[in-house]
Amino acid sequence: MINIESMTTETVNEATKHIDSLDSLRIVRLINEEDKKVAEAIEAELSHIAEAVDMAAERFGRGGRIIYCGAGTSGRLGTLDAVELTPTYNVSPDRAFGLIAGGEEAMYRSVEGAEDSKELAVEDLKRVGLTEKDCVVGVAASGRTPYTLSALEYANSLGALSISVTCNKKSPMAEEARISIAPIVGPEVICGSTRMKAGTAQKMVLNMFSTGVMIRLGKVYQNYMVHLQPTNEKLVARSARMISQITGAGQETAQEMLRAAGMRVPEAIVMILGRCGLEEAGAALEKTGGRVRQALELTEKK
Fold this sequence. Notes:
The chain is α/β, with parallel strands linked by helices and 302 residues long. The protein contains 13 helices and 5 strands. Strands 2-1-3-4-5 form a 5-stranded parallel β-sheet, sandwiched between helices.
């Protein structure tokens, strides 16, 4: 049986023991005071997050995948991080995705017992064809969830990169993972409700991790997400505005160049700033792996 008393996330928060007697303003003020501790806890883990970014980016750049694994809230947060990489950075859904204990149904309702199955994690990773080129990110506040721990163990057995995101010290997942990221956020406002501070910490860490990987892979120019997919009216307008802001071109010109570039923002930017046609812009971007800054250097040397 798991000894939950040894987990920081399961201990009682003395500062909030009277929360049930407070009015709404004092309740949310107390929650806010506790939430302020999350960023400080993550600051202590920045070197580990940076290491994870570097190693994951190197593997992803060689064709590997980022696979998030978790149960309950942790599994949902990992899946959310993966899903958002497609519209934001044009990452194919088969290159970054989440596996949650209990399958897709568990995204919307609890699947009892799924998180306790070590065999299920191996089955899920075998089903998606895990290889040594991939990166498995195990997310669990406790650091002990059998499903997620098993995912890390199986990743290690194949030589894949294993990363754990937990909120307890010296957990089994932290010991198993090649890179451990463990912001210690302390006891929750509501005892054991790890969707709160622990969940916030996990979300912040995953934001840093995936955004850092995308930046290292050239998916960002200056601080613009130039590889976004303009798949609806709002994103088309955002893309044109982005092109205008980066290049100094008028909004109408930016819209025209976006259309001329086949609705691809990087090509439009290189065409305008590099004073070249679509074919040359596309060739420069292909040569530089989609990195706008380096592609512009190539067009300037022509």
